[in-house]
Amino acid sequence: MVLSDRAPFDLAQRVRAGAGAPLGEVFSFLSGLYFRGKLAYARAFANPGDGDAGVFVITPTDGLCPADEPVDLARLRRFAAVDIEGDDPRYRKPLDRDARRLARRIGPAGEVVLLGSIATGKYVDPLLAVLGERLRFPADFVGRGDMSRGGLMLRCARTGTELAYVGVRDAARHGPRPPRLPPPVR
């Protein structure tokens, strides 16, 4: 829909004209609740000194990109041409490069919290190879599907409740499905 020349809505028009639209906003539109939750949570709990500079998105071709970085139509088409697969060099080389940069930036005592899927290796393996013990994820993700994780992160961002993190390397990344989230309090 965003890529269509006939799409009349604001986001599609911004992607097609000028500098584009923020990557986080575009991915939120494409992924719905799941990515909206990730982005809201990351912005709520990023290190205060980093702001959005500490919120990165894993892309199919450009490695780790700041969530507020503009993307245009040509870049989105390039993203769409590559599946995120761990053995595809179009995906892996930029991600490996940026993971190394991030590792240097945070130093030996820093931590990176992965808000993406921890159940498959396509995100975890490249980051774990570079970050090791510094790669963490919310323990409450185990057993939850995308939509449940998205809803959980949105609620936490709204209430200011940060989740507990555990190291990816030695943690159980698969488990029984937790109980459904209760309806949000309005």
Write the layout of secondary structure elements.
Blueprint: H1 10-16, E1 21-22, H2 23-31, H3 33-45, E2 56-58, E3 64-66, E4 70-71, H4 73-80, H5 89-106, E5 112-113, H6 121-131, E6 135-138, H7 146-159, E7 165-167
Parallel strand pairs: 5-6
Antiparallel strand pairs: 1-4, 2-3, 6-7
Helix pairs in contact: 2-3, 3-7, 5-6
Descriptive report:
- The strands form three sheets. The protein has a three-stranded mixed beta sheet with strand order 5-6-7.
- The model has no long low-confidence stretch (mean pLDDT 86).
- The chain has a domain at 30-68 and 85-167.
- It is mostly helical and 186 residues long.
- It is globular, with a radius of gyration of 17 Å.
- The chain has seven helices and seven strands; from the N terminus they run H-E-H-H-E-E-E-H-H-E-H-E-H-E.
